[in-house]
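I'm stuck. Please check this protein.
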Amino acid sequence: MARPDLNLLFTLDVLLAEGSVAGAARRLRLSPSAMSRALARLREATGDPLLVRAGRGMVASPRALELRDAIGQLVQDAESALRPAGKLDLGQVERTFTLRASEGFVENFGAKLLARIAGEAPGVRLHFLHKLDKDSGPLRDGSVDLETGVVDRAIGPEVRAQRLFRDRYIGVVRAGHPLSDGEITPARFAAAAHVHVSRRDSDKGPIDAALAGLGLQRQIATTVGGFAAALALVRATDLVTCVHERHTGVLYAGMHSFALPLMLAPFTVSMLWHPRLDADLTHRWLRGCVRDACAE
């Protein structure tokens, strides 16, 4: 079955309002013959005459009278949908957003972000989801509204990204650890017993590559899946671990941190979202809140 021409709804709305082919033609800036052809198409589509001649004028059929209010509302809704969104009233918004982020985001930035949201849009809720991979599928299918991370080749090409902050790897040990005193050389750093953070046992990162370039290798005592677990072990032992400085600041509070004795480039943590949400006013406001919460 052929799909109906929805442009005819606008024509029918004007015809019913004017009650005249000539009046509707003037309002839509069409010729009378073009409007007559449009009326013929409407009659064919609805199976009803819609407007019938009565003396010198035309009157709506019973079917047209039934349709008039519904057609008018449809046209208003369509015109509203095709206009730029109006001013956002945050006090009236009732919405839940899912924000996917790596470990440490909630601990470091969550409280500030939630305070801002509660003060401006009390009807907005955040569902924080732990980011386990770089798959863009959840952004694409709408199960995730916003996420944070480092942009790389695993991110879908259509995904939008905006810089949040620069970060770097640092070393962390317990207060009073031998590495908290004296110069930390690459050899001294590598010789310490390390907690390696990785979701895969064999996974090596930029720290191992930098050490390998110096002919050194870390002594890895154990591997864990996240920064929180690594820091919990380090806090209670003589182990050392490497974490993201800004992303995990709250997690290593009270411990000793130090710059790595290696040539490692800093990296950029960005905010990511699907382009279909670009113009969504509430989502745009949320992006501003996240950006401000993470401001350096």
Summary: The mean pLDDT is 88. The longest strand covers residues 160-167.
